[in-house]
Amino acid sequence: KSGFVSIIGRPNVGKSTFLNRVIGQKIAIMSDKPQTTRNKIQGVYTEDEAQIVFIDTPGIHKPKHKLGDFMMKVAQNTLKEVDLVLFMVNAVEGFGRGDEFIIERLKETKTPVFLVINKIDEIHPDELLTLIETYKDLHSFAEIVPISALQGNNVDRLLDQIKKVL
Ligand code: GDP
Ligand code: MG
After folding, report:
1. Is-contact 14 1, C-beta < 8 A?
2. ipTM, two decimals
3. Options 3.20.20.70, 3.40.50.300, 3.40.50.720, 3.30.460.80; which CATH number does 2-165 get?
4. Hey, where are the domains in the chain?
5. Which of 6, 12, 31, 123 for mutating ligand 1's site (highest number of atoms within 8 Å of CB)?
6. Which residues contact 140 (CB under 8 A, 6 or more apart)?
7. What is the pTM of this model?
8. Which parts of the sequence bind GTP (predicted)?
C-alpha cells in the first residue's frame, strides 16, 4: 500500500512533532528549514507493506493579503491530489476560528479527511468527548483519532487507519 497524505492544521498543533515520531528526527529537522517548494515532502514512512508520503500544504489558513488568495488556490488543488488529508487540531485550545476556515476548505474537496486531535495528554477524558462531539457536527470526517504526538499515544493506531484508506 502506498499513497500521499497531506497534514494540515494551525501552527503549533503538533504537526512536526507527529512527523518526528513517525518518520524520525532527521527528516523533520530538514522540513523546518524554509523552502520555496509549494508542496514539500516532509517525510516518507516506509515499512514492508506500506509507503506513506507525508506532504506539507502551506496556505490553508485565513489569507491576510492578496497573495494569500493565490496560495489558497494552490493549496486547494493539493488537497484534491492527495489520497488522504490529516487535519490536526490542538485538544488544549479546542475549536477556533482558524479551524472553521480550514473546515470550509475541506468541504470543497472529496478527499477523505481524518480529524487528528493532538495533545490529549494535556486534557481530561471528558473534555475529549466534548471536543469530539463538537467536531463531529462540523464535518463528516472519515475518522476522528485522538493522539499525543509527544508521548506517542495512539500514533500506531492512526498509522494503521491511514494504511487502511490507501
Ligand atoms: P507545528 O507547528 O504544528 O509543527 O507544531 P510543533 O510540532 O512544532 O509543536 C508545537 C508545540 O507543541 C511544541 O512545543 C511541542 O512540543 C508541543 N506538542 C506537540 N505535540 C504535543 C502533544 O501531543 N502533547 C503536548 N503536551 N505537547 C505537544
Ligand atoms: Mg511545524
Report:
1. no
2. 0.99
3. 3.40.50.300
4. 2-165
5. 12
6. none
7. 0.91
8. 9-16, 56-60, 118-121
